[in-house]
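Open question from group meeting: does this chain pack into something compact, or does most of it stay loose? Before anyone orders reagents, we agreed to write out a predicted structure and look at it together. Recording both the input and the output here so the notebook holds the full record.
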Amino acid sequence: MNYETTIRTGLRPASEPPVGDGGFGSSRGGRGRLAIVVAVIALALGLLGWYSMHHAPTTGDAAASRNAQAQSVSVITPGLTSVTASITASGTLAARREMPVGIAGEGGQVVSVLVDAGDWVQAGQVLAVVDRSVQTQQIAGQAANIEVQRANARIAQANLDRALKLVERGFISKADVDRLAATRDAAVAQVRVASAALEQLRASSARLNVVAPAAGLVLTRGVEPGQIVSPGSGILFRIAKDGQFEMQARLAENDLAKLAVGQSATVTPVGTSKPFTGQIWQLSPTIDAQTREGIARIALAYDPALRPGGFASAQIRSGSVTAPLLPESAILSDQQGAFVYVVGKGNKVERRAIKTGDVTAEGIVVAEGLSGNERVVMRAGGFLNAGDVVRPVVANAAASAARPGA
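Structure tokens returned:
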């Protein structure tokens, strides 16, 4: 019975107004619900604060997070390397002293040609012979004329000798003796005149031969047997004196100013990979007003692979320089000029303007802009901007450390 009474007490009709027994419909129940809500909010704020204290990233963690997301780039510390500075030039091969040879005499028909292009000749050697049949007859006639004049001189001398014997006896006057002496002297002089004429004919005949003015290598031959030649025929042979060659390297005036006589150079003719070593023996004293170029003449010893008139390139050593060396991939350029990206403090990318120098097999010389101790972006520079934060990765560290100053 007590159980039923208790049940009925807890159940009330819906139409019955609430009484102040502490239920949810009373004012005391509304305050309880508010307290519960406040407690839940306080609990949530406490949990949020605890999570922030134990799980929020610190400044260092944020930086590490940014670095983890940064782009990885290869960097290199170039250091300083001693590089032999060189200047690249191009030009033509030629004889150092080219001697054009032509006909020196009256000329005539060429009887024979005794040398060909590529032959070595000595000074005075006959290169070609011109027909001299007429000159031979003239020489023979003049030689006979000398004999006639000598005979006349002997007769004049005999007449004078007889007159001198007769003058002692008074048969011939002193004036007659003087006249005979003058006749004798004239006859002797005629002998000398005839002898000089003979030598002139012989010299003229000898000049019909085309001879080498000095020892050297025959470069070209421009005459054939049967050809009629004269002083106006032009050049019959070209000879390289002593077989010495040269390269006439054309250089800009600022490069020419860096060179001096005696500096060595390596010459490579077109069509061959064989290099030839030579030395500058002359620098052009003038600059072409149109091209602003001058000529450095590089002396070369004879070699069959060197052909005058051919094209060649030269590497002229102009001293040594100590500077950073960078691979081509590290150097960029735009309208402002050449530059590299350097990784600075905080792994931020900085743009650094540079001036490049010679290009070598090891890399490109940086003449200005770098000290060699910077971390230079080796690759991926085209995808960076100044101020970007990157994650540097040392590229080829062993080779970089081996360089002086790395």
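Observations to bring back to the group:
Confidence is low (pLDDT under 50) at residues 1-26, 397-406.
Residues 16 and 257 are 119 Å apart (CA to CA).
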